[in-house]
Design brief:
alpha+beta; 2 domains; 10 helices; binds magnesium ion; single chain; globular; ATP binding; 60s Ribosomal Protein L30, Chain: A
Amino acid sequence: MSFKPISDIGEFGLIDRIASITAPTLETTPGITEGIGDDCAVYEISRSMVQVTTTDLLVEHVHFDLLTTPLHHLGSKAISVNVSDICAMNAKPRYALVSIAIPSKTSVDLVETLYRGMSETSRIYGLAIAGGDTSLCPGAMVISVTVAGDIEKENITYRKGAEPGDMICVSGTLGGAAAGLRVLMREKSVMMEHIRHGETYDKDVMSNLSDYDDAIRQQLLPSARMDIIGFFEKENIVPTSMIDISDGLASDLAHICKRSGVGAQIEESRIPILSQTRHIADEFQEDAMNYALTGGEDYQLLFTLKPENFSAISSHPDISVIGKITPKDDGLLLRDIYGMTVDIQSLSGFDHFSG
Ligand SMILES: [Mg+2]
């Protein structure tokens, strides 16, 4: 057997292999209608209701840096990213199981602050923290959150289901989380430079961050868009497909197209980006559109709707129509502001195991 490192197959390649090994277990439990491959696993709990479940790992040095992340915010984000996956199924979160592994030298106060962040955010979402586990882990903090929710069977929304002619919509703005991360990483390197020179680090060393507050907030304190799910319910809208944007618009739109067996064309001029995000990209001599397409961690909802729903969403201040679903053979295209089209699949999102 030849040695093949995980970085050769990437995160999605690894998930595909795990899915094929675990697929036979799905036959043991009737009622599992979706396994690996969507934002949540789906289990029929009654004739009319389904339960949706998701889990996420946050690993220190990989997903977060304690030098730039307040523990209270981290706790909040750990909950929000899971609730975001529940929203992506058009469902409501009900309860969470939270597990942490921490180095033994971690202060009690820090752990309490982390859980306070989780608790306060959970209450906003109407989510109960109902259990979990704790363990020692030398060298890094690891947080695992599992959230279960439910939804009427007729209203569940999968990644599959998009059809040619559907509108492609997105909530909020994109690219802000990636822009915020750039600023935080720059502040960290300033901080490290001072420490390296034996200077005491104090808050004055950091630049005034108020010009970057929206982007930093999007990175450190993303919100799950339960308000959009509530809006759908009020307007009697059921999207034809939906996903939350965790890896970047390009990669997450590709997931919808792959699962639905369709193509897509989106318009660069319609992709919502905050002016602050554009300013930050300019400062770093980077492209804000690139943040939106491949940056990830925005936790907005990307969904498709039948054209007849247009009037219902047109007045919503925080939903943008960015393109339309096309036949599969048309591919995944981005039309830039000059009218040129580029293949979206040539742009990829974040992969934990590559490079
Ligand atoms: Mg997701």
